Amino acid sequence: MESSKNSQLSKQEIVELLSAWSFSGNLTIQPTNQGTVNTTFFVETQVGNFVLKLYNDSTPTAQIEYEHSLLTYLHSCNLSFAVPTPVPTRTGETLILVNRNNSLLRIALLPFISGQPSDRKNLAHTHAVGETLGELHHALAGFGSAGQMAQLPAWGDIYHIHPLVTDPLEVTQLLKLPLTQQQYIIKTFTEILEAAPNLYKTLPVQTTHADYLSPNVLLIENRVVGVLDFEFATFDLRLMDYVAALDHFTRFSWKEAPNLEFVQAFSTGYAKYNSLTHSEAEALKLVWRLQRVSCIVYWTGWFREGKVTCQSVVDAVTNTSLLEEWLEENTTKLLSYTAQL
Q1: CATH 2.30.30.30: does it fit domain 116-338?
Q2: pLDDT of 341 above 50
Q3: What fold characterizes domain 5-111?
Q4: CA distances from 334 to 66, 94, 112, 264, 327 (A)
Q5: Do residues 241 and 209 touch, judged by C-beta distance below 8 A?
Q6: Poorest-confidence range of 24-33, 145-154, 185-194, 247-256?
């Protein structure tokens, strides 16, 4: 959790903030010690348990309002799992702004969703999270179908994915890569930058979660009960969201290739609610490469911000080249799994 003025609020100050929701009786409040962007607190009340979320100063209010609108929409979709739909205040707002200690606090109250983060090495969990992503994509297709509400760039918009890396080819200089990796980056990035515009013209685009990772998918036993953290949601290739999740849930460490048994489990789970188009299946390898390139650019921006080390991004470059080798060797099997969708 980032260090901020928010985390230094006293219990009494938090109780005062909660007065906007008219809670009565004793309140139990404690930090969650979770999240890398925003500050959150567990709140136990007589009417239920909640999470109080204090947004980081760097998060634009328009993005928060977009997230709340999306969550409210999903709440109406009769999903098989819960989403953290903001609780309205007594005056009907889902976001309140409070001046405190010479700073503006943006605050929301969310229902607490009980469950445990998915276990990436549990095959049944992987099938379940794939199934849930399929259901989620089916619902998200009905939200903001023109993408005009989205505040964040698509992940394939590599020139704008991080404000501190406006020229992706500068990554080689910023990371001070050895010659062989410089050649790999320039070749790969050039190919991807040339291919990306056509992908966005020809493949399905819709609202996506954009952060569908293990900590954000909660299960009880082998059933998904909640999906969290929609703060990075945006309008993007549906396949980009799919391959980002596939990469995360089938690779157990940076040094490992995707596990084909888990790739199949995720894919068959997804197929319960959604099917990739023929064009998406054919483009899966290319979009997976695009997703990895986008991550390298984004993490390079994080390096410039001081959030990660240079070596961690260099390792990501190395591991991305290993992934590309695996994709070359396993394209036929990947297509056979997606053909079942």
Answers
A1: no
A2: yes
A3: Phosphorylase Kinase; domain 1 (3.30.200)
A4: 35, 43, 37, 8, 8
A5: yes
A6: 24-33
